[in-house]
Amino acid sequence: MNSVQIHLALTHVPVLLSLVGLVIMAVAMIRKNATLTHTAFILLLLAALSALPVYFTGEPTEELVEGLPGVSEASIEEHEELAKTSLLVVLVTGAVALAGLIWKTGLARILRVVVLVLALGSSGLMAVTAHLGGQIRHPELRSGFVAQAQGGENATDTKEVSETGAAQGKEDDD
Q: Global pTM?
């Protein structure tokens, strides 16, 4: 397995764990359920841990795909910059969740609120980062994309509408 395969195989794990952890934490706080709180803390800690290999395989993945046809260098850079922020926030969320697992009394209520707010931020950032990553090889996710059928059943010529409204033709390699 190379870095691209690892990056793509694991990329959805921290996103989903962050979102599920957020939902479970919200439900746990509404129901005042210690078991759900514990579960949310574990999921958010796992989200943080799973984000590490995704992040550290990003740079080697960039090196392998940046020269491929249809790959946007601007999309890579935008994804990479937000990934740094996302990693930081998800790691802080995981660290506070770990503190919540360790300290069962005293700070527990404050930690639940802090984790809920951090989980909201980390899950949102992770989702946007994943979306930007998808745009690197999937032009159909980019703003202004217009697909037009041409020739055979599987042949398409894609067009992206620039900020000025002008369509720019691009071959679709996929």
A: 0.77
